[in-house]
Automatic annotation (TrEMBL):
Residues 11-71 form the HTH tetR-type domain. Signal peptide: none annotated. Keywords: DNA-binding, Transcription, Transcription regulation. This is TetR/AcrR family transcriptional regulator. It comes from Nonomuraea longispora. GO terms for molecular function: DNA-binding transcription factor activity; transcription cis-regulatory region binding. Pfam families: TetR_N (PF00440). Residues 34-53 bind DNA.
Amino acid sequence: MGEGLRERKKRETRERIADVAMGLFMARGFDKVTVAEVARAADVSVNTVFNYFSTKEDLFADRQHLAVDHPVQVLREREPGESVVRAFRRDVLHAIDTQDWRYGFNLGADVFARIVDASPALVARMREVHEQREQALALALADELGAGPGDLRPRVVAAHVLTTTRLLTHASVTRRIAGEEWESIEPGLRAQAEQLFDLLESGLGGYGRR
């Protein structure tokens, strides 16, 4: 059954408010913009804003469900015979090739990062998002592999895989903030991704042996 008129109008209103808010945040910074200003710019009431978004942070993180759901999607859609690590390697390398937003390799990721870094509230919110991503992936792993409640392996795997992707995102964004063009970032980032996923696949047992 398709989306009804009422649902479509609600979705469009929510998206318009979030887009207007993001424009203001990008122009002036998150902490300097009030919900009342967002409401005026979006031509809605403050109550309407709060009908769609419980907090101001929700305005900024409107699409956080996509970020939380994506690792689970990678897990579910891995190819026959493909390991979890191999699936994430493939997905990350594809994101590098296409400069995709899902790992922060897109143009403008540095602007997003600057807004977050300038606001303690957003730093805390992004930490929550990372924790939700890790928990969602660990639960999906445990469910798919039939892990018992005391089995820590799904949590360890989720933590290692998503820490790897987060470090690659940070490396890319840091270099963009420093003014580097993607053409100079991409080769080294790809090489780092290959090295890190090689390490995950081979295990840490031999790393650093004297």
